[in-house]
Amino acid sequence: MIDELKIYCKNTEEYLSVDGGDTLLDVYNSIKARVGITPLCALVNNKAEDLRFQLFRPKMVEFIDINSPIGYGAYLRSLCMILYKAIVDLHPGHRLRIEHSIAGGYYCRIKHEHNVLTPEIIDTLKTRMREIVEMDIPFKQHERLTADVIEMFRSQGQNDKVRLLETYSELYTTYYRLDNVIDSFYGPLVPRTGIIDIFDLVPYHDGMLLLGPDRHNPSQVAKQVNMEKMFEAFTRYTHFNDIIGLDDVGTLNNAIRSQDASLLIAVAEALHEKAYASIADDITRRYREGGARVVLIAGPSSSGKTTSSMRLAIHLITNYIIPKIISLDNYFVNRENNPRDENGEYDYESLYALDLEQLNKDLQALIAGEEVKMPTYNFETGQREYRGDTLKLEENNILLMEGIHGLNPELTPLIPEEQKYRVYVSALTTLSIDDHNWVPTSDNRLLRRIIRDVKGRGVNARQTIARWPSVRRGEEKWIFPFQENADATFNSSLFFELAVIKEQAEQVLKQVPQNVPEYAEASRLLRFLRYFDSLDEKDIPSTSLLREFLGGSSFQY
Questions:
Q1: In the prediction, which pLDDT does 114 show?
Q2: Which of 17, 214, 291, 539 is positioned for an S-S bond with 222, CB 3.0–4.6 A?
Q3: Is 197 helix (H, G, I), strand (E, B) or coil?
Q4: What is the C-alpha separation between 46 and 509, in angstroms, rounded?
């Protein structure tokens, strides 16, 4: 027996004696009656670890279940590996590509010379997945020299992982084995397949949709939701990635190392410019046909709404239409009338934080050609003020409003639909780490917000991470349900941006102390960023949307 040691368990608020070499699973089994949850993974000194993690020194341990985003992530990664094994078992030589989160699940394609996914094939895959779950096979974590792991993946035909690891600077690489297959992920998996019993696999366009548990009710499978416009936007960009041969981070890293990054930046920026011009042309057409008097620009946090508004305004001017900009912030209700959230705090993201009656009254007057006294919201006093500012729409003027509620019909119920044009801005990340690890759009936006908050708002990474769950809840309530109301969708992601953001993000994430809960998310993001080669920001133009977060923009925010 190795010398006894003490660990502190946050779940039971006690010190526990364990033997050196015991796993987290051993510890849980000894106290499970007192823990009260079924853990999928654990935090060890506030860092997510597999339950087979061995203990050799004193640690603080917190067991995590599916109700935590960390536990949900472990469940989902494990589900993806089960799908991969089912494909290897039934269709050896086929390539599984898990592309992005959409429609309540995760869009997957199988790439092969025949490339046809029939409902019958999908049903047999789902049946095989159920069999793998019933077999209760362990997920075994291993760590070997990266060079050896590269050869293991090469032997399985996983060239995407070979490309990634050949540009990876770490000496050792962690991977998982599930019976006859191996895979790698940037987060822990659950101990055994038998835990993964809530899922579905259904046909979706030319691929399939992998549905995990409902995040709000994990005992049920998540419901598929209609997101056809968002899917079309994703498909347009993934198709472009296919054409230029930029599917994954390994390919991006190789492009950076071969000095091709300047061309990639130019191409990505040209795509944005082309999209802005196309949207502006559509607005112009609608305007000249007698509609589109109000342009509403909406999107989640750090999607790039502000820069998009400014660049879209420029393109409208080239079409001889002069935008007049209204800030929805100026229509906040007086602070004492602001709604509160479930914690009793002011809910500034609520639709009803805005004076909808006054906003619609002013919009109707402006569209009718009247001069309107415009409010200004005083954030120091929490009161709306009138300081003599007025606005009137002249010939060839159009109203442009940017705010998170732009797609919500309740924002402007008194304005006829034909007089509104709605633009949805979101960072629909289409670059994957590898075939089985996508880049969540929320991670992309969180990293943008972290560096923007540090540079422009004096808010550190820990504070931004702490606030993020509340921001996400607000988005799920007030933004995402209305995505399909958009007349146009603008993808604000740039496939090189995480390579540019990397150095700034790493500097501030490393400042999050280990003794705070936010360290778990900071360490996860740092691990994620290690896969990217750094790209110098000097080649990023001053008009780029990315400058809204990096600094150095030619626009005034």
A1: 65
A2: 214
A3: coil
A4: 14
pTM passes above 0.70: yes
Tokens for 126? 């789902």
Token output for 506: 């790493």
Write the DSSP symbol of residue 114.
S
Pairing label, strands 95-102, 4-9: unpaired
In the chain, the percentage of residues whose pLDDT exceeds 70 is: 99
Q: Which two tokens stand for residue 36?
A: 């009260």
What does the pLDDT look like over 23-76, one tens digit per residue?
999 999 999 999 989 999 999 999 999 999 999 999 999 999 999 999 999 999
DSSP tag of 307: H
The full DSSP string for 453-522 is IIIII---HHHHHHHHHHHHHHHHHHTGGGGGG-SEEEE---TTHHHHHHHHHHHHHTTS-TTSTTHHHH
CA atoms of 535 and 263, how far apart (whole Å): 13
Residue at 104: amino acid letter: G
Going across the sheet that includes 4-9, the strands are 14-19, 4-9, 60-64, 41-44, 47-49
Cα 506 from chain centre: 18
Ordered domains of the chain (ranges, CATH): 4-65 (3.10.20.30), 70-225 (3.30.980.10), 231-550 (3.40.50.300)
Which residues, in sequence order, are bridge partners of residue 203?
208
Q: Is the pLDDT of residue 100 over 80?
A: yes
pLDDT at residue 435 tops 50 = yes
**pLDDT tens profile 331-383:** 999 999 999 888 888 888 899 999 999 999 999 999 999 999 999 999 889 99
Q: Residue 532: which residues within 8 A CB-CB, separation 6 or more? A: 249, 252, 253, 498, 499, 502
What is the Cα–Cα distance from 209 to 224, expressed in whole angstroms? 9
Q: What is the pLDDT of residue 346?
A: 86
Residue 12 near residue 35, CB atoms below 8 Å: yes
Distance in angstroms (rounded) separating the CA atoms of residues 274 and 278: 6
pLDDT at position 113: 60
Angle, helices 261-288/305-318, rounded to nearest 10 degrees: 60
Question: What is the rounded CA–CA span in Å between residue 151 and residue 158?
Answer: 10
**E strand or H helix that includes residue 133:** helix 119-135
Nearest to 46 by CA among 514, 428, 358: 514
What's the rounded Cα separation, in Å, for the pair 181 and 535? 34
Residue type, 261: A
- The sign of the CA dihedral 39, 44, 48, 54 is negative
